[in-house]
Amino acid sequence: MTTLSQEDVGTRIRELGEWFQNMELGGVWTAPHHFLGDYPAIKWANFRDAVPADLTGKTVLEIGCNAGFYSFEMKRRGAARVLGIDSDSGYLAQARFAAEVSGLEVEFREMDVYDVARLQERFDVVLFMGVLYHLRHPLLALDLIHEHVARDLMIFQSMQRGSKEVARLQADYPFAETAVFGEPGYPAMYFVEERYSGDPTNWWIPNRACAEAMLRSAGFEIVAHPEEEVYLCRRRSSRG
Ligand SMILES: C[S@@+](CC[C@H](N)C(=O)[O-])C[C@H]1O[C@@H](n2cnc3c(N)ncnc32)[C@H](O)[C@@H]1O
Q1: Does the N terminus or the C terminus of the chain have fewer Cβ atoms within 10 A?
Q2: Within a domain: 43
Q3: CATH number for position 78
């Protein structure tokens, strides 16, 4: 726990730049004017009961941890070791400060999702929340997570756009079959060439069928869908 006064915490929060995650640190909120409201707490409230309440002895990797909100929640559930990685050093500085103020022992490391093989470790729980659509190579990232770091449970979230339908598809279609691609429930991803919501790091946004198909294709079985954008998955030993 920090010995900083509330005023000093506020000063440090401001010095650490703009926060994406709203958290209360020593009586000060980090992002009280977030465009999504009290985020990610409002998201977490919708699926927290689907996540094992007791993570005693478990290892956790959070990819794209930002300021550490979900890493801290995993630690509060008793995880033995929590590692948060993110490609943005500014967010990691926020995460380290949040850990210091909260007194929670979480390790944060600057690392790109494409480099997870370098960790040379598998984790009982992997969180991969809100990152997929920020990637130019989203399926590669899921493949790498499956191949190198996931052992059992993955908690996944992606922004979704387009149809919420999921079509029942055959395993194969003849070349002359073209209509199926026009079905709203066919897996599809939207490519954002410039920016979406003012953000040039939004690249690929899947519809629901696509998010689910990509998870399966990368070797993850969907075991729960507690919130529109959130999936709990188990790693299968082989890909789909
Ligand atoms: C929308 S935020 C989501 C943060 C948090 N996971 C959540 O759900 O609240 C996306 C995060 O992914 C990180 N990120 C983007 N591309 C990444 C990459 N290639 N490797 C690791 N982290 C990445 C960003 O820096 C940012 O912290």
Answers
A1: N
A2: yes
A3: 3.40.50.150
Residue 157 CA: nearest ligand 1 atom is 8
Q: Is residue 135 part of a domain?
A: yes
Specify the amino acid at residue 141.
A
Could you tell me if residue 49 is inside a domain? yes
Total domains present in the chain: 1
Q: How confident is the model at residue 239 (pLDDT cuts 50, 70, 90)?
A: confident
Reported pTM: 0.97
The answer, yes or no, to whether residue 94 has pLDDT greater than 70, is: yes
Select the more confidently predicted residue: 155 or 3: 155
What are the helix (H) ranges across 86-225?
89-102, 138-144, 208-217
Q: Does 40 contact ligand 1 (Cβ within 6 A)? A: yes
39: containing domain: 6-160+214-235
How many angstroms is it from 168 CA to the middle of ligand 1?
Answer: 32
Q: Let me know the angle formed at the C-alpha of 222 by 131 and 232, rounded to the nearest 5 degrees.
A: 55
Q: Is residue 117 part of a domain?
A: yes
Q: In ligand 1, which atom is closest to the CA atom of 112?
A: 20
Sign of CA dihedral 21, 104, 2, 85: negative
